[in-house]
Amino acid sequence: MRVGFIGLGSQGAPMARRIIGAGFETTLWARRPASLEPFADTPAKVAGTPAELAAASDLVCVCVVNDEDVAEVVGGEHGVLSCLREGGVIAVHSTVHPGTCRRLAAEAESKGVALVDAPVSGGGPAAEEGRLLVMAGGDPATVESCRPVFASYADPIVYLGPLGSGQVTKLLNNVLFTANLATSAGAVALGVALGVEPGRLAEVLSHGSGNSFALGSIARAGGTLEHLAPLAGPLLQKDARLVADLAEAAGASPGAVLAAADAALALMEHPR
Questions:
Q1: Do the beta carbons of residue 53 and residue 25 sit within 8 Å?
Q2: In the CATH hierarchy, which fold is given to the domain comprising 3-162?
């Protein structure tokens, strides 16, 4: 299988390197030449446009930031769908609205191309070690055909159901993480008010029954949320907004989780 990879950020770059290392013929595209420089020592080819990349690929993996970026690289004038062969597959690793994936999948289907949603969780270190979590939705046979490539950077790979299921799951994961940040930061703040040093308190709690991935993030930063604000804040805010939209459209109550997530986002925006 020939693989194209778009989105060479902190998580996408190690994913692409794992694909190359697994022996797949790989083509890369990036908006910034600097993103391609670390791959100069690999056998990967470089394309001038997403369309050119698609022409050289059977599977195109997309790991860009948001819905607008996904729509542009997949369906734009020089996008993947303009040149991907019939029978080709697009895997959307980005975290986006499931409706975006469904809309692009309908466009892809008209061209004889399949699209699956396969958002990932774990970050750059997990990608480097081949232990990302892939949450896949779409036609099960199509997802299965992608599994050998996904396995180069992910374990486990979980199939969740129809197209969009992966995105819904990833968004709920991110909102729960954000909510856990709020409760963890609240516990640390209470500890400070009661006279306990925040960094040590967070370190101790991260080894107790109240531990969570969110608390571990706060502990590594010395007991504050400030380190997460510049990069993670806008992304988590985007995901919380998407979950709120989905809940409203479905007539479902988001419950306490979104309120807690909003509290964490407020703390990151105005750290105390």
A1: no
A2: Rossmann fold (3.40.50)
DSSP string, 29-60: E-SSHHHHGGGTTSS-EE-SSHHHHHHT-SEE
pLDDT in tens, 229-262: 776 788 889 999 999 999 999 999 888 899 988 8
DSSP annotation of 28:
E
Ranges of CATH 3.40.50.720 domains, the chain: 3-162
Contact criterion met (CB below 8 Å) for 57 and 3: yes
**pLDDT digits over 83-116, tens only?**
999 999 999 999 999 999 999 999 999 999 999 9
SS3 at position 60: strand
Q: Give me the amino acid identity at 230.
A: P
What distance in Å separates the CA atoms of residue 26 and residue 19, rounded to the nearest whole number?
7
Residue intervals of the chain classified under CATH 1.10.1040.10 are 168-269
Distance between CA 57 and CA 92 in Å, rounded? 15
Q: What is the DSSP letter of 101?
A: H
Sort strands 89-92 and 45-46 into parallel, antiparallel or unpaired: unpaired
- Note the pTM of the prediction, 2 decimals: 0.93
168-269: CATH homologous superfamily? N-(1-d-carboxylethyl)-l-norvaline Dehydrogenase; domain 2 (1.10.1040.10)
Residues annotated as part of the active site = 170
Side chain identity at residue 193, one-letter code: A
* Cis bond upstream, residue 156 (ω within 30): yes
